[in-house]
């Protein structure tokens, strides 16, 4: 019997789904045992998989998490754009099965998360913080899940509440920036896979931490790595930082 990790791919016809199918197909450590896209029933294809990978639409992730929990299947969620209620439902399902929820599966971006926290801690409140992200013209949510996670990290270091100080872009006459506010600017165009920059602007100097993804393969490889990592784990809600041992 093959010891390859058996994957059920949800969102299989999409850009990420197709990339994962191609990479897993060329890797003897993985086997795709089922594919699901709009109009398909996950339950029809669940039986033979060791783990489910979801890169589809945010409205699907919470119901999918409930199905994964009911059948004891680990779930890897790459989909972004979840509402707070959807995130709560996913966290509840993680009480019964391991779920890895990551707005970005690239190793580089997870190092960016780590460095952003360190820079915020060291530079402190004298440095104004802003985030800029750019993605391809077909992306449907904004700002990106990765940009939101970067903002969350900055908010955690400040000890403030996200909704109080983080907002999208600026227009009109917003007045002088306040010390703690963090604007997240979302650019869209062409085929950009995913760029993120965190800016720390002080008096007389500026630090910029940037990551640029040039291929979806980095996310696909990370999601496959997370799937392998999740098998045999106790239930819980995990991040890519857990998978990479960066916590
Ligand atoms: P896409 O639009 O190319 O693909 C999404 C696929 O999901 C489509 O084939 C669509 O038909 C399918 N889908 C939609 N609703 C569905 C449903 N109800 N049931 C089953 N399938 C359904 O998008 P994409 O570029 O592949 O991105 C997918 C998601 O992954 C987005 O939320 C995106 O932001 C996110 N993403 C995350 C990462 C990461 O590293 N976490 C990286 C890239 C993209």
Helix content: 25-40%
- Major β-sheet strand ordering: 2-1-3-4-5-11
Alpha carbon gyration radius? 19 Å
User: Count of helices?
Assistant: 8
Number of strands: 11
**Biggest sheet record:** 6 strands, parallel
Structural class: alpha/beta
> How far is it from the N-terminal to the C-terminal residue, by CA?
35 Å
Bound molecules: nicotinamide-adenine-dinucleotide
Portion of residues in beta strands equals 15-25%
Low-confidence stretches: none
The global form is elongated
What series of H and E elements makes up the topology? Answer: EHEEHEHEHEHHEEEEHEH
Taking all residues together, what is the mean pLDDT?
Answer: 96
Q: Can you walk me through this structure?
A:
The protein is α/β, with parallel strands linked by helices. Helix content is 36%, strand content 25%. It is built from 8 helices and 11 strands. The strands form 2 sheets. The protein has a 6-stranded parallel sheet with strand order 2-1-3-4-5-11, sandwiched between helices. Strand 1, helix 1 and strand 2 form a beta-alpha-beta unit. Helix 2 runs parallel beside helix 3. The protein is elongated. The structure holds nicotinamide-adenine-dinucleotide. The site of nicotinamide-adenine-dinucleotide (NAD) has 24 residues, from helix 1.
Summarize the structure in short.
This protein is α/β, with parallel strands linked by helices. It has helices spanning about 15-25, 60-70, 85-95, 105-125, 145-160, 160-165, 215-230, 240-245; strands at about 5-10, 30-35, 50-55, 75, 100, 130-135, 165-170, 180-190, 195-200, 205-215, 235-240. Helix 1 packs across helix 7 and helix 2 (about 60-70) runs parallel beside helix 3 (about 85-95).
């Amino acid at each position: 019997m093959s010891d390859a990790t058996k994957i059920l791919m949800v969102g299989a016809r999409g850009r990420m789904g197709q990339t994962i199918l191609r990479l897993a197909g060329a890797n003897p450590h993985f086997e795709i045992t089922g594919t699901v896209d709009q109009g398909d029933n996950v339950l029809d294809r669940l039986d033979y998989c060791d783990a489910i990978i979801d890169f589809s639409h945010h409205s699907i992730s919470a119901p999918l998490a409930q199905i994964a929990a009911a059948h004891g299947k680990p779930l890897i969620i790459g989909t972004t754009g979840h509402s707070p209620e959807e995130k709560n439902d996913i966290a509840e399902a993680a009480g019964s099965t391991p779920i890895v929820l990551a707005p970005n599966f690239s190793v580089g971006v997870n190092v960016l998360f780590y460095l952003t926290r360190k820079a915020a801690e060291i530079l402190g409140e004298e440095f104004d913080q802003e985030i800029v992200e750019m993605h391809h013209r077909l992306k449907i949510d904004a700002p990106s899940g990765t940009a939101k996670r970067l903002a969350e990290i900055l908010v955690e270091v400040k000890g403030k509440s996200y909704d109080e100080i983080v907002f999208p872009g600026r227009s009109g006459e917003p007045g002088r920036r306040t010390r703690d506010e963090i604007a997240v600017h979302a650019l869209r165009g062409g085929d950009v896979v995913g760029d993120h920059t965190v800016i720390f602007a002080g008096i007389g100097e500026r630090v910029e931490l940037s990551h640029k993804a040039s291929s979806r393969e980095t996310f696909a490889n990370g999601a496959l790595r997370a799937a392998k990592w999740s098998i045999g784990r106790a239930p819980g809600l995990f991040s890519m930082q857990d998978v990479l041992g960066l916590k």
